[in-house]
Structures are given as C-alpha cells and as structure tokens.
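Renewal narrative, Specific Aim 1. Our central claim is that a sequence can be written position by position from structural information alone. The example that follows is taken directly from our test logs and has not been curated for this report. It begins with the structure tokens describing the chain, in the order in which they were read.
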C-alpha cells in the first residue's frame, strides 16, 4: 500500500504560506477584452466573482456603452435599477435596449436619456409602462443635444397613433435603403429588419400603427400566385404560422390545430411530432411541454398527461 502521509519536512515554500492572507492580483488583460461582449447578466455575474473583477468593471466604461436588458432581467428591471446600471457608462451610453421591461416609466426613461445624451439606438419594445408621449419626449431630448437617432423600436407600447409615428419619423435618421423597399420582417423568425429605422408602421390592412410582416415567399407555397401586397399586414389582420411565418388560410386554422394557442400552417403541422393521445403538435416555442413516456418514441402533452393520471386514480 502506498504511503499517503504528508511529510512536513519537505514542504514547498508555497505550502509554508498556507493560512496567510493573499493579496488579489489584477485580472488578465485578455479577460478585460472579453467584457464588452458579455450580456448584462454576464457582467453582473463576473462582478460577483472577486473584488478585482468588480473593480475592473467599475473602472472600465467600455462594457457599459451598449446596454441590452431582456429576459429574465427585464421582469425585475425598474427605474431605480436602470438609472444605477446606466450610470456606469459615465454619460457615454450609445445603445439602450429595454425589451419587455414593464416596470420602466416615462420618468425613469427621461432621467436616463438626460444623463446619456449620446444614445443613438433606443429600443423599448414591450415596455408597457411607457407612453407614446414619454418616448417622444425622450427622442426630443436627444435631438436637442444635436444627437440623431439611427433606430428606435417601440412595438408593444400602448395607444400608438399615426401622429406619434410621424413625430418619431421626423427625428430618426432615414436610411436611403428604406426608400427602395417596404420595410417589413418575417413573422415568427428571429431578428427585425436591420435597415428600417423604426420597427412599426401603418398596417395596409387595418390602417393602425403596428408591426407589419411580409410572407416568406420561399415557404409560403399557397401564396406564390398572389400579389405580395395581399400577404403584407400585421398579425391581427393576417394569421401566420408561428413556425415558418407563412400566411394561413381560414379553413386551415381548425384543421392544423396545435396543443398551444399558436397558429400553424398545414405544412408545418404535418412535419411536427405529435402527441400519442390527441395527435396534436407543439410549436417550437412550447416544445418543452413534451413528456416522453417510457417505451414510446413519441411524447405525451401536458394536458393528456393530466387526463391519464386522473384515469389511473379512478
């Protein structure tokens, strides 16, 4: 049996210093280069690792120049926290992205704007605590400092009217490429049009200010023989498949029924795996609700699983 005892007579100099307080060293320069590419949650996590990294984040402005707040932090983001985080940019904030931050108010946004006059990208989609007037005041404040907004996202803010959109359009820098085509995005596909300065426009169907989508011609087989204008409109006017973004005929809404409330076209409905009991699929956003029973290649949806448990209890 090998001898596992520790020989104190031959201890290394490093071992002799065990128990003595150590002085934290500086973070490696390569790590500092990575910080600007981290998300907000990543920056917060890094700042809690040690005092050296916390001090490095405190003294470095570069990681805070583009602030994007999304899930799950958006649920907890309020005016006070937002003002504290944006103060780390020392008035040099360039991009402010608040996605579904429902606790942010007009007053909190205005305070951040006044302290960061260099913002050229303002994203506040789904911030239902904001008003169109509050967003317009924030944009006017930026313009008063000689700053020109490159893009703004306001989809999901309540009570947006045509006059609000016209005012915002007058303050946002126009991209020459937008004059060559209608700016719309594909429904259900990630990302917005990176050419359009504003993410909403007037829907050609209902004449309301909403996010307008186009049909992806490559996947929308049933619409290829029609004009593109017939497939262009907001989600309230034209039902679209959550998988591919294609237009869905009214007759297919009942036949291509999904377990979740999202809409599917018949083509995607046929391709998706279905519940062993109800023969209905989940869309890609709710696929985590699939329950794989033992000995089965398919899955059981949550609703059928509850019914099955009730039958067993009876």
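The sequence written for that structure reads:
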């Amino acid at each position: 049996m090998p001898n596992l005892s520790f020989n104190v007579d031959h201890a290394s100099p490093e071992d002799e210093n065990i128990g003595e307080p150590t002085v934290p060293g500086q973070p490696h320069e390569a790590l500092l280069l990575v910080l600007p590419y981290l998300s907000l949650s990543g920056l917060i996590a890094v700042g809690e690792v040690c005092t050296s990294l916390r001090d490095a984040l405190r003294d470095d402005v570069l990681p805070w120049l583009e602030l994007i707040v999304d899930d799950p932090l958006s649920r907890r983001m309020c005016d006070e926290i937002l003002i504290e985080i944006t103060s780390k940019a020392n008035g040099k904030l360039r991009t402010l992205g608040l996605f579904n931050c429902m606790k942010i108010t007009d007053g909190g946004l205005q305070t951040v704007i006044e302290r960061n006059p260099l913002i050229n990208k303002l994203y506040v989609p789904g911030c239902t605590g904001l008003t169109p007037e509050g967003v317009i005041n924030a944009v006017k404040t930026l313009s008063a400092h000689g700053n020109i907004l490159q893009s703004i996202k306001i989809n999901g803010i309540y009570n947006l009217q045509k006059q609000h959109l016209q005012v915002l359009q007058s303050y946002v820098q126009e991209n020459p490429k937008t004059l060559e085509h209608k700016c719309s995005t594909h429904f259900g596909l990630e990302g917005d049009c990176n050419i359009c300065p504003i993410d909403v426009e007037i829907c050609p169907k209902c004449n309301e200010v909403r996010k307008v989508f186009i049909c992806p011609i490559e996947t929308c087989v049933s619409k290829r023989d029609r004009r593109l204008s017939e497939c262009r409109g907001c989600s309230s006017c034209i039902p679209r498949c959550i998988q591919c973004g294609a237009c869905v005929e009214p007759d297919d809404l009942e036949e291509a029924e999904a377990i979740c409330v999202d809409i599917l076209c018949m083509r995607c409905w046929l391709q998706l795996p279905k519940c062993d009991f109800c023969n209905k699929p989940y869309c890609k956003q709710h696929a985590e609700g699939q329950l794989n029973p033992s000995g089965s290649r398919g899955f059981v949806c949550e609703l059928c699983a509850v019914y099955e448990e009730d039958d067993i209890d009876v």
